[in-house]
Amino acid sequence: MNAFDELAGNFSKLPGIGKKSAVRMVNWLLKQDRSYVQRFAQNLGSLHEKIKPCSICGAWTENDPCSICSDVLRDKSIICVVEQSQDVSTIEAYGEYRGVYHVLGALIKPLEGIGPAQLSLQPLLSRIRNGGISEVIIATNPTVEGDTTALYVNKVISELNVQPAVKVTRLATGLPVGGDLEYVDKRTLALSFRGRSIF
Fold first, then answer.
1. Integer distance in angstroms from the first to the last C-alpha of the chain?
2. What residues contact residue 185 under an 8 Å CB cut-off, 6+ apart?
3. How far apart are CA 164 and CA 148, in angstroms?
4. Distance from the Cα of residue 76 to its chain's centroid
């Protein structure tokens, strides 16, 4: 295997990148200025040294604690629980949520050997035990694994018996804004009926 094939093989292991895309990337890099490619390689090489999980929430950060956990204007009484660090970026992009986060790092997937022990739950439970938390929003994906994980997290939090009690909520699921009933699948419609609110 030559250097070209080896690099293409490395790129093809990235999520969403197939063999053809990987080959295109290597060809593109070969056409670039040598200094750009060297900077790219340096950035890649120093990734694990510079970026670490936040010691409070678990999101990727260069500075510990992360900018969200250290922001005095954030509402520290509300914690949004997400599966992975990129979910924090997704929620932040909307600019509506002003609380803080907790990254689980995985979802419960028994078929893949991922159980509750693999979730980063203890730091979350410690934050709740320390007091001052009024609500935990579970923002896992509306999938079987996401729902299973949400139920487990809710159960573990309720077993803490902290006073005052922490309200555990789940992101609403259902019809998208501007959506058409004609094109909605049965599961989404069922969730919409279950999650309906008072008008």
1. 64
2. none
3. 26
4. 19
Question: What is the DSSP code (8-state) at residue 46?
Answer: T
**What pLDDT is attached to residue 169?**
92
123-126: long-range pairs with CB below 8 Å, 24+? 123/56, 123/58, 124/79, 124/81, 124/153, 125/156, 125/157, 125/160
Q: What is the pTM of this model?
A: 0.83
One-character DSSP codes across 105-135: SS--BGGGTB-GGGS--HHHHHHHHTS---E
162 phi/psi in degrees, rounded to 5: -75, 150
Q: What span, in angstroms and rounded, lies between the C-alpha atoms of 182 and 63?
A: 48
Element (H, E) at 99: strand 99-103
Burial of 54 (0-12, 13-18, 19+ CB in 10 A): buried
The residue whose two tokens read 């670039």 is: 32
Task: Please work out, in degrees rounded to the nearest 5, the angle formed at the alpha carbon of residue 61 by the alpha carbons of 96 and 69.
Answer: 50
User: At residue 199, does pLDDT exceed 70?
Assistant: no
* 15-67 pLDDT tens trace: 999 999 999 999 999 999 999 999 999 999 999 999 999 999 999 999 999 99
HSE, CB side, 13 Å, CA atoms: give it for residue 13: 5
